[in-house]
Design goal:
Blueprint (H helix, E strand, L loop, with lengths): L1 H11 L3 H13 L4 H6 L6 H17 L3 E7 L5 H17 L2 E7 L12
Parallel strand pairs: 1-2
Helix pairs in contact: 4-5
Length: about 110
């Protein structure tokens, strides 16, 4: 069943070939982390790009440490990926990244307008 779900995910992707190539590149650890981020080969590329860009800016400004914050962590999967990217960015840039997550635990409020 898990294989069927994975195949469906690949086929629904806007660019299945690129998606699969990214998975292979990431799984084999090809290229540097920065290159994999540029190629969108890392999971949650939006997290990877933001954390890496912030760390590169911090390095250029002479800062040794930055914070990455996620509001509304829900199940925590994004927070785990942010921690993964923070570790990779630290290895690549030398800038320490602290990750913080906030959530009320109540979910989103009901809409009051369109």
């Amino acid at each position: 069943m898990a294989l069927k779900v994975r195949i469906n995910k690949v086929l629904r992707h806007p660019s299945p070939g690129r998606y699969l190539m990214g998975k292979v590149i990431n799984r084999l650890g090809l290229f540097s982390y920065t290159t994999r981020v540029r190629m969108n080969a890392e999971g949650r590329p939006e997290y990877a790009y933001c954390i890496l860009s912030a760390a590169n800016l911090a390095k250029a400004l002479g800062l040794r440490k930055i914070s990455a914050i996620e509001f509304g962590v829900a199940g925590g999967n994004g927070l785990i990926m942010a921690e993964y990217h923070a570790k990779k960015v630290e290895e690549e840039t030398g800038v320490e990244v602290e990750v913080y997550g906030f959530d009320t635990g109540e979910g989103l409020p009901n809409p009051v307008d369109y």
